[in-house]
Please model this.
Amino acid sequence: MTNEELQADNEELKDMVKDYEELLESKKEASLCKKNIYENNGIKIKFESIKNVNNPNSIHGIYPYRGKISAIDAQQLISQLPKKGVLLDPFCGSGTIVYEAQRHGIKSIGVDLNPLAVDIAKGKIYLGAKDDVINEASKIIELAKKLKKSPKMPSDALKHFHADTAEEIMRVSVFVDKMSDYIKASFYGAIALSARGCNWYKWTSSSVGKDINPKQKIDFYKKYFDKTKKHFHPTEHNGSKIFLHDSKKISEIVKSNSIDYIFTSPPYFDCLDYTAYYGKIVYSIFGSDRLKIKQHLIQHYKDYQEDMRDVLNDLYKVCKKNATIIFVVGDKKIHGKIINGAEFFNDISPFKTCHVIERSYAGSSSQVFDKLNNTKRKEQIIIWNK
Model:
């Protein structure tokens, strides 16, 4: 190679480095944006501060799924989106965003790789008529009581329950494959609530604590029936769908150039075990291989960046031109260092960064962990366009 060729290569390399530095700088500037109003392509969204993120009497209280986005937060944002269009949540979890979109009149698609989460999400958008739901629950309880024999609860789960409560749960479990979606979600929620009750309600609504002995007897049939009635808040079904699928391969189930909005709160790396807590009890009852399910979820730090890059690249395929993409992310402390969620995602995103809003955690358990760990993590809302 001649000196002229070497010099040309060096100049090209310098230009590439300069371009990359400018890209990082532009993304850094976007991540520091403090405006709480986004406006582009005829869409205007005002982001409000939410002091209370809980609404346990809504349909979202049907099951204590850890890490779900606040329904109040989701309502506030979705209500400002035009109803004409299709919304995708590639990490739908228990279906909060999909349900709120359907309630607002937006056709939505939810995708998750956690079978328990998918069952709960389906229960929220496929409810049926109230009389039918109540009659189904009553019939299942009646049949469960008449069973001459019931399956034995696995020991890993049995330790959390009073023996009589455990027997009632297992009697109802015989009919789980025949349950409608909402009734099944209610069943899982009643299991979690009964586990908490058997331990004298010393556990929180979303986390499993130390077993308390002796156990308190809980009438599972009553808990199941009451939960079925309490959380029944139907919406008009508009063709919204829930899929059990890998978000890295979302283009296998969603057509190219078909999505108008993406709104999601992706799993934070190494933050939550989405198969643990009450989910671990449910999986144990039904003999599911929880660790195998966990192995395929995106949440491990060593693979997280490449997994998320694959997800974002596939999302790019299914989005229409000018689609609006909203990711709610957060800071994470790794090896003593705080990683800014918005900067992390902007560095791997194929989308154009338009707006980033940063806010403190409010009304959530994250505040408690920050106090314990002496950290001040932030949450970011990233808005991209294609």
